[in-house]
Write a structure and sequence with these properties.
The protein is an alpha/beta fold. The chain folds into 2 domains: 10-42; 48-136, Immunoglobulin-like (Sandwich). The chain contains 2 helices and 9 strands. The strands form 3 sheets. The chain has a 4-stranded mixed β-sheet, with no helix packed on it. Strands 3-9-8 form a 3-stranded mixed β-sheet, with no helix packed on it. Strand 1 (48-55) and strand 2 form a beta hairpin. It is globular and about 35 Å long. The model is unreliable at 6-41 (pLDDT under 50). Bound molecules: copper (II) ion (CU). Copper (II) ion is lined by residues 83, 118, 120, 122, 126, 129.
Length: 137
């Protein structure tokens, strides 16, 4: 069966326009906000992205606050070496290729401190290359 859109009569169009303008100045922005939020949850849930860099011998930022249960994407750019990103408590470990952005999705379930570290030996300061997520309830 073919569905054909029925052209609106001139009167119907006019009624629509009147209907829209009858929404008060305060209601219109509220409705716009609602439809935007729905679009995000239904179509592509936008995860919060945390931009990071890895460079001898430091992750930036080194301390990252998170909420328990929140899914986030770490977008880590290595600036100079194949560093490693190892998060033992979350069972995550990846190489960070220089010049590329490596994305890792994590979702810590409980509040507390979760350490992360570089696990590719990258030089004299390698042992200092670590950081932590501070997960709040
Ligand atoms: Cu390193």
């Amino acid at each position: 069966m073919k569905l054909r859109a029925k052209p609106l009569s001139r009167r119907a169009t006019l009624q629509c326009m009147l209907g829209l303008t009858s929404i008060g100045m305060t209601a219109a922005p509220l409705l716009a906000g609602l439809s935007q939020a729905q679009a995000q949850t239904q179509d592509s849930p936008a995860l919060r992205q945390i931009d990071m860099t890895a460079q001898r011998f430091k992750f930036t930022p080194e301390e990252i606050p998170l909420k328990a249960g929140e899914r986030v994407v770490l977008a880590i750019k290595s600036l100079d070496f194949i560093h490693g990103m190892h998060i033992p408590d979350l069972g995550v470990r990846v190489d960070l290729l220089p010049g590329q952005i490596t994305r890792i999705e994590i979702q810590p379930q409980h509040s507390g401190i979760i350490d992360f570290l570089c696990d590719n030996f990258c030089g004299g300061g390698h042992e200092d290359m670590h950081g932590r997520f501070i997960v709040s309830a």
